[in-house]
Fold:
Amino acid sequence: MNVPVLLKARQTKYAAYATLYVVVVLAVLTVANVLGNRYNKTYDSTANKRYSLSEQTAKIVKGLKEPATIYYYDRPTGFKQAKDTLAQYANLSPKVHVEYVDLEKNPLAAREAGIRSLGTAIVQIGARKEEAKGLNEEGITGAFIRDLKSTTRTICFTTGSGEHQIDETGPEGYSRFKDLLGKDSYETKSINLLMKAEVPSDCTVVVVAGPKSDYQQPEVDAIDKYVEDGGRAMFLLNPPLKMGRTEIADNDALSKVLESWGVTPDKDLILDLNPIGQIAGLGYQDALVTRYDSHQIVNEMKGTATAFPYSRSLEVKSGDKTTVEKLFETSETSLATDKLDTPRINANDPKNKKGPLTLAAAGSYRTGRENVQGRFVVVGSSDWAANGFLPFNGNRDLAMNAVNWLASDEELISFRPKDRDDRRITMTRAQLSWVGLTSLGILPLAVVIAGVTIWWRRR
Structure:
């Protein structure tokens, strides 16, 4: 047969085209696999990015100054599950490496590393090693934080005047706040300044959480001296209510110290008439905040709501030795009343202060020494950080951001790993009946009628 004729044959062309297509497809698949193996990218389509690492973790990992290695100790059957989480850390920075230690091939490795159970991760940065408290983001990132923070940081909560207690698990307790601090590698303890009018030297931050009784002058002087010497303190102060069994002292001595720094707590009660708060399940006594000023504590909270039950307004101005900044205000529909001894409040009383009202402020105190400054945060409510309200939307992020800023841990200020969304739909019996009637009756009947109609027209 003539060769040119063979090349022009239809079968030969089809064979050449098919061969070319196969080669192209194989080349594309090869390139895709190579790129996929080298650049491991995923897309999280969940509403709150449940399966993505948080901004806080990304900030910590991308800011590493030296290489970090995550050692994971387990049998080979457990490696696949761990890779889903650990690979995300390796993708954040080329300085992060992951090593999977097969305890079937190397059973002595666990003993050498002090591993007590399978499925344990160790994060090593330089010569420092920390065991992750869980194979999740909070556990792994917590190990990174403990590696990076060589000094112990202690958050001290004052007690003795009716403050919220960090070991109390009820709605009024601060046990959830304590747990959050532990996840960021802060230690916590209670201190009583009435027993000894001096802030312990190991306190990184002092928290005054909603005292119901007056602080005595020695206690106030101890806090004043602590901040003005470069200490850090957070004041969460409720309005001085005098209703029924609820009676909160004015705490004038403590208020005068805050006023000297530039923050004056007003003796009033904020009511929020915003209907959006009612939709969110809040009462008129719960101030809803959705807008924030510019400050490191709240810069990451744009578009996030926080709520503050039984709050008071603040007046803010910088002093001779202090620089004070407002953190956020209540809504324009809010008001503040000075009637603190009766639940009968007239929202139309012309004596009421109209919103927006300042609810929180942060300030720094110039000590006169180089690179040494006191810091303080004042919020006109304390119940927002209690167990009953801390889970509300952005409350826990605000609480932790405030502590991070006070402790000079600004690199930790960001959103924490998100909890799973509860997307269950709750319906009444009538709504369930209507859904059943629609899905099992009306819709199938409509399809049948449409089919019969089309068949009849074609006929």
Summary: The chain has a mean pLDDT of 87. Residues 429-458 form the longest helix (30 residues). Residues 153-408 form a domain with the Rossmann fold fold (CATH 3.40.50.880). The first strand starts at residue 68 and ends at 74.
